[in-house]
Each structure stands twice: as structure tokens, then as C-alpha cells.
Write a structure and sequence with these properties.
The complex is a heterodimer.
Chain A: H1 3-16, H2 29-74, E1 76-85, H3 86-89, H4 103-109, H5 112-124, H6 136-146, E2 154-160, H7 163-170, H8 175-186, E3 190-194, H9 196-200, H10 213-244, H11 249-261, H12 266-280, H13 288-312, H14 316-324, H15 329-357, H16 361-365, H17 386-394, H18 400-430
Antiparallel strand pairs in A: 1-2, 1-3
Helix pairs in contact in A: 2-18, 5-6, 7-8, 10-13, 10-15, 10-17, 12-13, 13-15, 14-15, 15-18, 17-18
Chain B: H1 3-32, H2 44-80, H3 91-105, H4 115-153, H5 160-200, H6 203-208, H7 229-261, H8 264-279, H9 282-304, H10 314-338, H11 342-350, H12 355-384, H13 387-392, H14 410-418, H15 427-461
Helix pairs in contact in B: 1-2, 1-4, 2-4, 2-5, 3-4, 5-15, 7-10, 7-12, 8-10, 9-10, 10-12, 11-12, 12-15, 14-15
The chains are: A mainly alpha, B mainly alpha.
Transmembrane segments (chain B): 6-25, 46-66, 130-151, 172-192, 231-252, 273-294, 314-341, 362-383, 430-451
GO molecular function, one term (chain B): phosphate transmembrane transporter activity
Membrane topology (chain B): Multi-pass membrane protein
């Protein structure tokens, strides 16, 4: 239809239409119904939005409560009272013989596992040895070393129970274990205690003897390497891109690379670490060093992006004033811009580090999934990290590991929450509005 | 001496160099006071930095180069010894003996499992200490030479500040270039390993085959069970379909509610709570999905009468992944809705439209490109997600659209292929890199398109 025909049609239409001179009757039944319908739609839409937020929050609450409900039990352990007639069992060891410089050798020669087994079977029958966890002997040894006076008399020691009993005492376990628990409870020989081993120990095959310290230390060492590399490099790159970079192809390429790296799946960084650090450079497998390097590559773009925003928010007047009184461009940035941008950079860094702390997949790729029975001593020792330890325990068939996994998750979440809270505090405390 | 100790020694000597350089410049300053020659060009600390940098940087560079070169030199020296001549010719067992001998020599291992490695161990020990001494001596010589060279150049009119600042700029540039180097490193390593993989298994089988059952010994030309279509489908089904069915409605509606309806107080509290969802580590989500969600869904499916419901079903992994993505979709939608000019919203409201009509008919259509960009980013995040699917989805490749069945994804298979005890050149390991390349290219493409769309959209309203 041409423009002319179109306007003709309008004119024709206007001529034909009978214009109703009365205004719309908003109070009429039809109009009121229509408005009510529209308002109902409005309420429905608002309710849908509320529902979406509520559902997300509920999911988070459900997740946290599930973890708390299971995990708090992981910090407890079941202990069994075992009576030790030390003078008879140790054939007359004295307090003096297990103190001083020779204490270790004397304790080693005492065959403590045998003593424990003997004491338990005297008290609870032939099957008694299966009541206690495999770490019970080490526990007794530690108690003797701490307090040599124990050895001179009859003592009742509370020792950690085997994981089957532990599970049965806390909730429903295997029928056989439930029966044992019932008999022990009649004798008043069971109690719950705080599981210090869980905070100080390392991985073990027996869930009642596991601890997270080794994994946690591995995480700390990995994070130390990550921070040491990613922070300076990230800050330098942010300063260069914001303050000095000329507008050219190279700068564009750097920007594209950084934006892309920030969105690359973390598992790809694991593949890079495997191919480059392990295979090409021959660095030690499953070490905190390689883990830290890999996570540093992953964290660096996050710090660069946060750093650029922080540097950008420093007003140009600061730079101009510094230049005006004769500072060189490098002095302007390092003496004036960087200190002002530092709180923002630190906030971004902490958030990036929190992400790295929870990261699992790249560490699996570089072999940090080994069984680590003792805490790593150096950066090149085989180590594991807290999230990887959670993954490994979640794979275990033994029921006792369920609560340990959740307990480890609680520890990890507490640290992440702490880091995020620190970031928020820093932002609120030091953020300057220009 | 270990590498760490040497590094600390070098840094300590660097500090000494800084002090010496600074002290030297301080004498210039004293001499210049009241003298005829005027002022010293740079502050004393710049002289100190100049000497320290000239001493430390070449030494540290040499240290790292030596660290990567010396293992090969050590192995050569051991192999050239007469004892090494009766080593097996077969490359694999030879490498095993050598690595064991090396472990014994370094004190990592105490007993030898192979007789020959015990004989080689002392040789290794000698070679290791010989080359580590050379490395140490080289490092220290470079350090002192660099420091001495810099020290002789110090003069009252020496432009130490300009030199140091040029070095600082070089350092900054290098830090920025690391991003490019990392990207290229990822690309090169993936391409290189994938090339080796495709020389064993045909790319045609990999890209279009429907049978995923990787064999550890491959025969060229035959079907080796490396058909990745079931994995691609599983990744798309879990990450781009199920997860998005959860994340898009919930994320978008949360964003709308929080920006358009909620009071300031509610928004102040609810936004951080939603952000927590993004901060929970994926291993926690995975554990939750495997332990709580998946059994519940299986029971539900059995109740519905689905007979073959698996305990590692696709639905559990997808739903939990969707929840993880909610904050990402929500914040991207939030940004793009906020970018719509207020005049458009006010105009619609002034015409008598209700809030929901304004949102549905004005704000959302205007914000659509931004929302779509956010969804693309979310998809790229979901298909690269590893731990949730590793723990909650299955390991069996399955070409099915039944959400209650077990389905595997690309990332699950990468983990599965690499966590066995394979040596690096095996087709299993290389296949993981080929899958990684596919994943990298896909996410790169999605991110690129998403960022372009979002940027275009922002510019349209500025």
C-alpha cells in the first residue's frame, strides 16, 4: 500500500466511524472486570518473582542444613572405656623409664598395640580387639608420653571406637554393631567426645582415624604459591593495561586473552598444568608447587579484572596533581595510584583466592588425589587439598566417611565465608567515594 | 644446596646489592652538597634498585633455565657411563629404571626394586651434585658480575631513575604478556596432544562416532570406541538443557523481583544470599547432588513408574548445576535490565500499563540481547563444570533423552581418562586432551559471542 492510499484509508475510516462522545466508563462492570484481571496478572507475576527468590534461598538453606546435620557428628567420636592394669601389662615399667630422652625408645619397645589388644580382650572377650579404631594404640602411646604417671597404676582410658560402632552409636548402623553398642551401653562403657584427631590428623583407611590437617596444610601451601605468583603478576598487568598500555593490536590481544582466561573452564587449566608443568618441565607430581602454579594461572585474570576496576576508580586529578609537581609516570602510579587502589585490588584478590581454595578439578588433573597419610613437609612433597580430600572421601563406600565428608565441607565453607566476610569488610572499611 | 635455599641466598645478596648501591649514591650526595657540580641526578634508593636488579635478575633467570636444562644433562652423563651400557633398549623399562635410580639418588626412595637402578643410583648422585654445583656457581658468578657491572656505572650524573623505570615498565609489560602466553600455552598443548591422538584415532570416528568405550590399545582404521557424540550429547543435555531449564526462569525472575519489586532492605539482604550460591565450591554441590538429590529423584522416578531410573541420573546433576548458575543468570539479567533507559519504562507506566506489563512488554524485549548474552555465558560455564557431574552423573556413555537415566559428559570423561595409571603417551591420556580441545573451543566461542552481544547491546543504549 502506498503512502497515499494509506492516508486515504485513514480518512475514509474516520469518516465512517461514529465517534462516541461519552468518555470511557471506568466504573462500569466490563472495565472493572478488565482492571481486576490486569491486577490479578500483576499479583501473579510478582508472586512468581518472590517464588523464584524464595526457592533459591530455600535450596541454599537446605544444602547448608544437610551439611550441618551430617557434619556436626563428624566432629564427635565414640569412645569406649578400657581398663588398663599397666603394672601387670607392661611388666613393671616405671614413670621414670618413659620420661626423659629415652622415652621414645622405651615406648617403642613396649609393644603398645599388643598391650591394648590384651587389655581389651581381657575386658570384652576375644572379639574385643575389633571394638577399637586402628589408631587406638597410637592414642594410648600419646597418653603415656604426655603423662608418664599413668603407667604406675590401674587406669581407665577412654579410647576411640571402631567406625562401625561409631556409626551405630550415633545413628542406625549394622545390626551386629547395634547389638555390641547396646551391650556396651549397659556397662556404661560408651561416651561421646570431641574428635581432636579430625582436626589434627591426616587421611587414613579407617574413617574413625581420619583427619583434615594434612589436606588443609596442602591447601594452605598451594594457596601460598598461588598468592605469591598471581597477586604481583595480576596487579602489574592491571597497572600496565590501565595506566600505560598504548592502544594497539598487542593491547587488544592481551585484553581478549584475559577476558577469555577468566571464563575458561577450570579443568582446562588442569590439562595445561599436566602437559606443561608435569610433562614438559618434569616438576614433581601431585605437589603443592604445581597445584599452586596451576591455580595461579587461573586466579590471575580474576585479579587483573578486579585490579583494573580499582585502578580505574582512582580519579584523574590525583595523577594530574602528582605529574604537576614533577613525579615521573612510574612514580605517579607506584606512589599515588596504587596505594589508593589497593583496597579494591585486595578485595578482588581475596575473592579470587576463595574461588581457588574451593577449586577441585584442576588439582585432580595434576594428580593431587593421592592417598596422603601425613602432612606434606615441603612444597615439592606429594600433597592433597581440602576440596580434593572431600571428593576422595565422598567416593568411599564405608558409611563412616559420610559424616567426615560433611564435616570437612563445614570446615571448607567456614573458611570461604571468612574470606568473603574479610573482603566485604575491607571494601566497606577502605572504600573511598571520590 | 636446594633450589629454595639458593633462591633465598640470591635474594639476600640482592638486598646487600641494594644497600651497597644506595650507600655509594649517598656519598655522591654528600660530596655534591656545597660542591660545584650541582645535584645528583637520581635519589640514592634508585641507585640501590639499579644495582640490585642488575645483580638478581640475570642470576634468577639463569637459575630457572638451569633448573629445566640440567635434568637432561644429568641423564646424558649417567647414560654415557660404562655401567649404563647394559640397560635395556626398550624405552619404557629404561625410563622406569632411570627414574627409580633418580628417586634413590635424591633420597625420595630407600630401596630399589630393580637391580640396575641400584647400580645407577651412585652415578646419578654424582651427576646431580656435579650439575647442581655448576648451576650454583654459575648463578653466583652472574650475580656478582651483574652487581659489579652496575656498581661501576654509578656516577653522580648517572640516570639511575630512568634506567630503573624502564626496567619496571618492562616488568609490567611482561606481566601483561603472561595472559597471552597462558592462552597460547593452553592452545598449543591441547593442539599438540590432540594431534598425536588424531594420528592414532581418526578425527571422523571421534567427532561422529556414537560408540564411546575407549580401548587402551588402538588399531588404525578399526572402530576403537572413541566416538564422542554420546559425550557431546550428555554435556548439552545436562549443561545446556536441564541446568538452563532451572537457571533461566529462576535467575531471570529473581533478578526481576529484586530490581523491580523488592524494597531496598529486602534487596540488600537477598542479593548477597544469592551470591553465596555462586561461592559454594562445586565439590560441595557435587556431594549434595550425589548424596541427597539423586536418591530422592530416583525414588520419585520409581514412584512415577520409570523402571530403569539410575541413582546417578542426569536430572540430579542438571538441577544442582542449574542452581549453581542462578546467580550468574540473575546478575547478568540485572545488569541488562538496569541498562534499559528509564524513559522507556516511565513512558510505558505513564500510558497506564501495570508494572508486570511494563516488564514483560517493554523492559524484557529491550533487555533481551543482554539476557541472551548472559545465558550464553551461563551455558559455557555449565558445560565446563566438572565436579558436580563427576560426582553426581554417571560414567557410562549413553545416547538417551531420558533424564532419569545415567549420562556422562565431556568433563567426566576427561577426569576418568586421566585418573587411571596411564603413562602420558597412551591413547587414553591423549583422548582427554582431544576432549579438552573440543571443550576449550566451544567455551571460547560461546564466551566470545556472549561478550560481543553484551557489548553491542550496551553501546546501543549509550
Amino acid at each position: 500500500m502506498s503512502l497515499c492510499a494509506w492516508s486515504n484509508a485513514i480518512v475514509k475510516h474516520m469518516n465512517n466511524a461514529t465517534i462516541d462522545p461519552t468518555p470511557t466508563d471506568w466504573n462500569g462492570v466490563v472495565m472493572q472486570k478488565r482492571i481486576a484481571k490486569r491486577y490479578a496478572a500483576e499479583r501473579r507475576f510478582k508472586a512468581m518473582g518472590f517464588f523464584a527468590v524464595a526457592l533459591s534461598t530455600l535450596f541454599l538453606a537446605f544444602l547448608l542444613f544437610t551439611m550441618l546435620g551430617q557434619g556436626l557428628r563428624g566432629f564427635q567420636r565414640t569412645e569406649i572405656a578400657v581398663e588398663f592394669d599397666f603394672p601387670a601389662l607392661t611388666s613393671g615399667a616405671t614413670a621414670a623409664s618413659i620420661t626423659g630422652p629415652n622415652a621414645d625408645t622405651t615406648l617403642n619397645s613396649m609393644d603398645i598395640p599388643g598391650i591394648v589388644e590384651l587389655a581389651v580382650s581381657q575386658q570384652y572377650g576375644e572379639q574385643g580387639g575389633e571394638l577399637l579404631t586402628s589408631a587406638a594404640a597410637a592414642n594410648v602411646r600419646q597418653k603415656l608420653a604426655d603423662n608418664p604417671q599413668l603407667v604406675t597404676a590401674k587406669q581407665t582410658l577412654w579410647l576411640p571406637a571402631d567406625s562401625r560402632l561409631d556409626v551405630a552409636y550415633k545413628r542406625a548402623g549394622e545390626p551386629a554393631a547395634e547389638k555390641t553398642v547396646a551391650t556396651l551401653e549397659q556397662k556404661d562403657a560408651l561416651r561421646s567426645g570431641f574428635n581432636w584427631t579430625f582436626l589434627t590428623g591426616a587421611d587414613a583407611t579407617d574413617p574413625s582415624a581420619v583427619g583434615i590437617w594434612a589436606a588443609f596444610k596442602g591447601s594452605l601451601m598451594t594457596m601460598a604459591i598461588t598468592l605469591l605468583l598471581a597477586f604481583p603478576i595480576g596487579v602489574f598487568a592491571a597497572l600496565y593495561l590501565e595506566e600505560y598500555a598504548p592502544k594497539n593490536k598487542l593491547t587488544d590481544m592481551i585484553e581478549v586473552s584475559i577476558n577469555n582466561l577468566a571464563a575458561v573452564p577450570s579443568i582446562i587449566f588442569g590439562l595445561l598444568g599436566l602437559a606443561v608443568f608435569l610433562t614438559m618441565f618434569g616438576m614433581p607430581r601431585s605437589s603443592a608447587l604445581v597445584g599452586g602454579l596451576t591455580l595461579a594461572l587461573m586466579t590471575m585474570p580474576v585479579i587483573v579484572i578486579a585490579g583494573r576496576n580499582a585502578v580505574k576508580s582512582v580519579p584523574p586529578s590525583i595523577r594530574e596533581a602528582a605529574l604537576g609537581i614533577g613525579a615521573s609516570p612510574v612514580q605517579v602510579v607506584f606512589h599515588h595510584v596504587l596505594p589508593l587502589a589497593l583496597p579494591g585490588i585486595l578485595t578482588g584478590t581475596i575473592i579470587g583466592m576463595a574461588r581457588a581454595l574451593g577449586e577441585t578439578a584442576p588439582l585432580l588433573m595434576i594428580g593431587m588425589r593421592a592417598f596422603i597419610p601425613s602432612a606434606p613437609q615441603g612444597f615439592t612433597d606429594a600433597a592433597t587439598a581440602l576440596p580434593v580430600q572431600i571428593y576422595l572421601w565422598s567416593d568411599e563406600v564405608n558409611q563412616g566417611f559420610v559424616e567426615k565428608t560433611s564435616a570437612a565441607i563445614i570446615v571448607l565453607l567456614i573458611f570461604l565465608l571468612g574470606m568473603n566476610a574479610l573482603a566485604i569488610y575491607l571494601r566497606n572499611r577502605f572504600e573511598t567515594r571520590w | 644446596m636446594t633450589g629454595t635455599a639458593l633462591l633465598f641466598l640470591v635474594l639476600g645478596l640482592g638486598l646487600v646489592a641494594w644497600i651497597v648501591g644506595r650507600a655509594r649514591a649517598a656519598t655522591f650526595v654528600r660530596a655534591a652538597k656545597g660542591g660545584p657540580r650541582g645535584q645528583v641526578n637520581s635519589l640514592p634508593s634508585y641507585h640501590g634498585w639499579f644495582v640490585a636488579v642488575c645483580a638478581v635478575v640475570p642470576a634468577v633467570l639463569f637459575m630457572f633455565i638451569w633448573q629445566s636444562v640440567s635434568p637432561a644433562l644429568v641423564t646424558n652423563m649417567v647414560l654415557s657411563a660404562p655401567v649404563a651400557s647394559d640397560l635395556p633398549q626398550d624405552g619404557f623399562s629404561r625410563a622406569a629404571i632411570l627414574s627409580e635410580a633418580r628417586a634413590i639418588a635424591q633420597g625420595l626412595q630407600t630401596t630399589a626394586f630393580q637391580a640396575q637402578s641400584e647400580k645407577l643410583a651412585p652415578l646419578y648422585k654424582d651427576a646431580l651434585s656435579y650439575y647442581s654445583w655448576i648451576g650454583m656457581a654459575g648463578t653466583l658468578v652472574l650475580l656478582f658480575a651483574g652487581g659489579a657491572f652496575a656498581f661501576t656505572r654509578l656516577k653522580p650524573d648517572f640516570r639511575a631513575r630512568n634506567k630503573v623505570e624502564r626496567l619496571v615498565m618492562l616488568g609490567l609489560l611482561f606481566a601483561s604478556l603472561l595472559a597471552i602466553i597462558t592462552t597460547l600455552g593452553i592452545f598449543a598443548s591441547l593442539i599438540f596432544e590432540s594431534y598425536q591422538f588424531f594420528s592414532m584415532v581418526s578425527p571422523f570416528e571421534f567427532l561422529f562416532g556414537t560408540d564411546w568405550n575407549p580401548k587402551s590399545v588402538v588399531t588404525p582404521g578399526a572402530n576403537n570406541g572413541y566416538g564422542a557424540i554420546p559425550l557431546f550429547w550428555g554435556t548439552i543435555f545436562i549443561g545446556a538443557i536441564i541446568a538452563m531449564l532451572v537457571a533461566i526462569p529462576l535467575g531471570l525472575m529473581s533478578a526481576i523481583f529484586l530490581t523491580q519489586y523488592a524494597s531496598t532492605n529486602v534487596r540488600k539482604w537477598m542479593k548477597p544470599i544469592l551470591e553465596i550460591l555462586a561461592g559454594v565450591p562445586t565439590v560441595v554441590y557435587g556431594y549434595f547432588a550425589a548424596l541427597t538429590v539423586a536418591p530422592a529423584i530416583r525414588d520419585f522416578a520409581v514412584m512415577l513408574g520409570v523402571s530403569n531410573a539410575a541413582s546417578d541420573n542426569a536430572l540430579a546433576a542438571g538441577i544442582v548445576m542449574g542452581v549453581m548458575i542462578i546467580p550468574l543468570v540473575s546478575s547478568m539479567s540485572d545488569d541488562s535490565i538496569a541498562a534499559v533507559p528509564n524513559a522507556m519504562r516511565d513512558g510505558s507506566l505513564a500510558m497506564g500499563a501495570t508494572k508486570s506489563e511494563t516488564i514483560k512488554q517493554v523492559l524484557l524485549p529491550a533487555a533481551l540481547p543482554g539476557v541472551v548474552g548472559g545465558v550464553l555465558l551461563a551455558v559455557s560455564r555449565a558445560i565446563g563444570e566438572t565436579m558436580i557431574v563427576v560426582m553426581a552423573a554417571g560414567y557410562t556413555a549413553n545416547l538417551t533423552a531420558n533424564p532419569f537415566d545415567t549420562i556422562t559428559t565431556v568433563t567426566v570423561q576427561i577426569v576418568a581418562l586421566l585418573t587411571g595409571d596411564q603413562d602420558f603417551g597412551s591413547p587414553h591420556t591423549l583422548a582427554a586432551f582431544a576432549l579438552g580441545l573440543a571443550l576449550f573451543v566451544t567455551t571460547f566461542f560461546l564466551n566470545y559471542v556472549a561478550l560481543r552481544v553484551v557489548k553491542r547491546y550496551r553501546e546501543a543504549y549509550e
